[in-house]
Amino acid sequence: MNQLQQPGHDHSSAYLIRRLQELLGPAGVITEASEQEPYLRDWLGKWHGKVSVVVRPANTEETAAVVQLCHATHTPIVTQGGNTGMSGGATPDDSGAQVILSTTRMNRIREVDPVNNTITVDAGVILAHAQEAARQAERYFPLSLGAEGSCTVGGNLATNAGGIAVLRFGNMRELALGLEVVLPDGRIWNGLRGLRKDNTGYDLRDLFIGSEGTLGVITGAVLKLFAQPHARATAWVGAASLQQLVSLLTRVRARCGERLVAFEMMSARSLELVLEHVSDTRAPLESKTAYNALIELSDTEDTGLQAMLEDVLGQALEEELISDAMFTSNQSQTAALWKIREGISQAQVRAGKAIKHDIALPISALPLFVAQAEQALADSGMTTDLINFGHLGDGNLHFNVLLPASTEYEAMKSATAAFNRLIHDLVINFNGSISAEHGVGQLRRDELKHYKSPLEMELMLRIKQAFDPNHIMNPGKLL
Fold first, then answer.
1. Residues with Cβ < 8 Å from 380, sequence gap 6 or more?
2. Longest dimension (CA), the chain
3. What is the pLDDT of residue 72?
4. Structural contact between residues 51 and 73, judged by C-beta atoms closer than 8 angstroms
5. Smaller CB count within 10 Å for the chain: N or C?
6. pLDDT < 50 positions in the chain
7. What is the pLDDT of residue 11?
């Protein structure tokens, strides 16, 4: 039993379900096994659990009522948004004692304030719908990731999601101004303030962002909006080494400033995997290169972005910093490049079983880290199919290892432990992090204790104890 888990009190599931049905009505309670199944399994197929009931409250008040009941009965709660996570943070265990609280019925766009540049939404709003609501008000919400058509704002906040625009706009933490949260005892904390300055004590908002549902249920948020970009310039480049791409990043940043929105990296093997397993994709460059980068500039108006990007990359070509470049001339070509970048997760699922690493390092350390990691894997004698890609502009690598689809569970488990220890030890040597944007969940929970200092773990456990003394909020995750 995890150190934060406690046996539940002797309240029958029948009593609990009856009370939940009284609180939420038929639309808010799912008891049929076939209807529960999509909530019980993560989309990667790595984790599967069991519950007696899935609840779908329609608003904050119903959420509070559910949490109050669970608090009174010591029933553990697993909060779930779009169920698109990478770390098993929203999947229940197999005890059957937990309740899944799905936020998907809480999907209101509460307010768009174009003067204050904010949007207030329910936690269950799908990310793409928040983006569209901003667009209709001639504003821009910049969080963008492959699952934006199904992931929810609440899940994005719970994991402090990143995505492709972090280089310019920051993670979800930087994009959130205020939160509304149902606390573990059912009380509602209303922190929905659209303020950019609020120096009145401890920042409670930041405690809940990235806490993965272990401190409360996020039910609403005030998010930052920006001026809608009306001009873009996009290019795909090839280089012989990762160091060359890092040098190019420095040069593009110096020349283009805040217009640089994305600088995405894919190794040759990553690109090859997508071309093999994702339909309607083709290699952007004629010749194969060891590393590739997808670069995008944007601005509120066309200030010569295309010429600017062509100029800086042209100089890089002349100096042989890069070996080739392809510029898009229309939206269709741009979308085709982004389909390649965003198709890696899908390609890995189709190609085999991936041991995923979501790591962050100082950008300057990336080339040396990759060289040492590749050498360490070679020295270990492990057979590896490395899939190295990520958000080069913010130092976030997905340094993955792909195993055959036929790999048995025990072999996968053993390989994962060996790979993780080797890679994560090296990450810590470079003052990096073993979790950059996917969260800890149950995937990295035990490793967190190994890599965090005893003092950091003690402080996090104290915070958990203060907010959730009955340990009912997403037990077995994060801590």
1. 418, 422
2. 74
3. 96
4. no
5. N
6. 1-10
7. 53
Dihedrals phi, psi of 414, to nearest 5 degrees:
-65, -45
pLDDT of res. 6: 42
Which tokens in the block code for residue 216?
Answer: 């409360």
| Nearest to 96, CA basis, from 40, 22, 21 | 40
The dihedral formed by the CA atoms of 49, 51, 54 and 55, expressed in degrees to the nearest 10: -120
DSSP 221: E
Taking only Cα atoms into account, the Rg of the chain, rounded to an integer number of angstroms, comes to 23
* 353-371 residue pLDDT tens: 999 999 999 999 999 999 9
pTM over cut 0.85: yes
Residue 302: CA count within 13 A, CB half-sphere = 6
pLDDT of residue 409: 85
* Cα end-to-end span (Å), the chain: 12
For residue 436, the number of C-alpha atoms closer than 13 Å in the C-beta half-sphere is 26
Structural element, H or E, at residue 237 = strand 231-239
Question: With the C-alpha atoms ordered 335, 341, 342, 346, is the resulting torsion angle positive or negative?
Answer: positive
Pairing of strands 396-403, 353-355: antiparallel
Distances (CA, A) of 369 to 152, 240, 275, 311, 362: 33, 17, 27, 31, 10
Closest CA to 293 of 393, 168, 374, 162: 393
Domains recognised in the chain with CATH numbers: 13-104+461-467 (3.30.43.10), 109-227 (3.30.465.10), 231-345 (3.30.70.2190), 352-437 (3.30.70.2740)
Helices (H), 280-394: 305-318, 331-342, 344-351, 366-380
Q: Judge residue 101's burial from the number of C-beta atoms within 10 Å of its C-beta, 0-12 exposed, 13-18 middle, 19 or more buried.
A: buried
